[in-house]
Amino acid sequence: MPLLELQDVRFAYGDREVVGGVSLALAAGEVVAVVGPNGAGKSTLLRLASGLLAPTGGTVRVEGTDLASLNRRAAAQQICGVAPEQRVELPFSVRESVAFGRHPWRSAFAPLSDDERQSVDAALDATDIVHLADRPLTALSSGERQRAAIARCLVQDAPIWLLDEPTAHLDLGHRLTVLELARTAARQRQRGVLMVLHDLNLAALAADRVALLVCGQLQALGTPSEVLTEAALAQAFGAHVRVGKHPTLDVPTIAAIGPTEAGS
Hints:
Layout: E1 4-13, E2 16-26, E3 31-35, H1 42-50, E4 57-62, E5 65-66, H2 72-78, E6 79-82, H3 94-99, H4 114-126, H5 142-156, E7 160-164, H6 172-189, E8 192-196, H7 200-206, E9 209-214, E10 217-222, H8 224-227, H9 230-237, E11 239-245, E12 252-259
Parallel strand pairs: 3-8, 3-9, 6-7, 7-8
Antiparallel strand pairs: 1-2, 1-4, 4-5, 9-10, 11-12
Helix pairs in contact: 4-5
């Protein structure tokens, strides 16, 4: 049974359908990257998968259970999420923010256990923000807040990770670190990771499968080599690309050449 299953999921804003009949399953131990042009419905799809939006058609299931039937606490025990922009309104410290990941698993106002405090420390270390632990979130850069959100997801330890542009605002080194954390969670802890990525080369590096979304429709789903082809990317993005082979890994690399005539 998949950890997460979207069955013919649809969503519309008024008369405008932005996700049209997408079916996708996420298994334990795998990373699936959702790619596509701006306005393709990628972020909307993740909000549907998380329960932040209710589908206007179809069903989202978590380990066989309709997500709509779960209360917020039960859903948070199954799903953790990271958004591309982290809203910060209250001056919680980074450590406090990361520790919030344990809230679905304990009663209100209960202190953290020794094991939970150790998991917070480990997550701060893994995301390279130990030195920021006592700083208020409001004083952080966008990239630092993004790493704090990833640390909170590590602490929450839900089986399903939904990451919307998890590498946004990060430098190259931290982008690779975040993607490796996601892959390690999938491989070693049997988590299922569904992430939206704009960078096709990072998607090829990180994902077991790639879902190409165009105008709310799932155009292709398969391995990076199967999906990230010159023809498919030219049609989806209106750009001429050259697809080569990574120098050390068996994954494709994509180089932009220029717009197609239709995309000019």
